[in-house]
Amino acid sequence: MALTLRFLPPLPSPAAAMSSTAARALTSVSRAAFSWKPTGRPQQTLAAAVSRSGVGLHLGACVTATLFPTQAGEGRYFLVEGEEEARVAAEVWNAEPRSQLCTTLRRGEGAHTRVRTVEHLLSAMEALGVDNCRIELSGGDEIPLLDGSAQEWVEAIQSVGLCVAEDANGQKLDKLAPEIHEPVYLRRDDCFIAAFPSSQIHITYGIDFPKVPTIGCQWVSTYLDDNIYSSKIAPARTFCIFEEVEEMRAAGLIKGGSLENAMVCSISGGWLNPPLRFEDEPCRHKILDLIGDFSLFAQNGNQGFPIAHIIAYKAGHALHTDFLIHLSGKNTVDQEQLAGQCSNVYGSYSSYVR
Predict the structure, then answer these.
(1) 20 to 30 A Cα–Cα from 37, which one of 129, 192, 210, 241?
(2) Model pLDDT for residues 234-252, shown as the tens digit of each residue
(3) Strand pairing class (133-138; 76-80)
(4) Are 80 and 88 in contact, with CB atoms under 8 Å apart?
């Protein structure tokens, strides 16, 4: 993935990114919408194991995540302490459709084992090319939040480096990537994601918080490679609205959230813990989340993020994963359920926009 970053001026409305005429012209996804394309590169894994510890966002417990090298074709998967036989693959079919304020994976419908807040770690792995990895969790079922960004995961991966992965027979496997051939979209009210054919990965993301003027409307557009991801996307932290914190904690959420691992913005007073790392850090964090969630399209150690121009507006985790299911052509998204998911993220001021 070759990543150069360029910025777009703020757009007045989602129509500036995708007009209603263009939206009407898009058709429902077909089986010809994408195909798996050889990248010309072998699958990779970590050169050695590496660990990071920290609090989990929702339960607030101290958790350790240890990343281990694994064989080509294994992909990325999680093991939770005490449930070693319950392997949770980092695939979109395991994503909970109504997971609150983060991306949660569960091993099959009705299964007990789950892993929460996977998006930042998976974002770093997808962008840096960690195609195969076993992630073991101890102390809880959440990924450590660290500083609220993916920066420490990037540093952890870079500290041990990557190597070519081999399968059980000692063979290398070619890495494949999904390539979009025709426009695909999923939309509810003014929340949408669209994918258009492109020769390289291009992401355009917009957010809008009219009741929080310090955040307001932001747009960022970028191409993708590991260098720009590491310096311009990975450091962007998650954020929340100060006036919503107590409500979320009363609901049993964000017990591990603090000024040390999230940007907090007051409706009237602005940022409570400046300085920002980037002027448009909230929107950059949404790109970070999108990459992590889209990594779930990966199968058998191949690339998850499609070769396409992805345009997203006010999307959120639920819409990210619903779009991937829609793209697969294996399921029809329940539009009424999707409406509720979009409303949960943007209905009031923000929520933890993770």
Answers:
(1) 192
(2) 999 999 999 998 888 887 7
(3) parallel
(4) yes
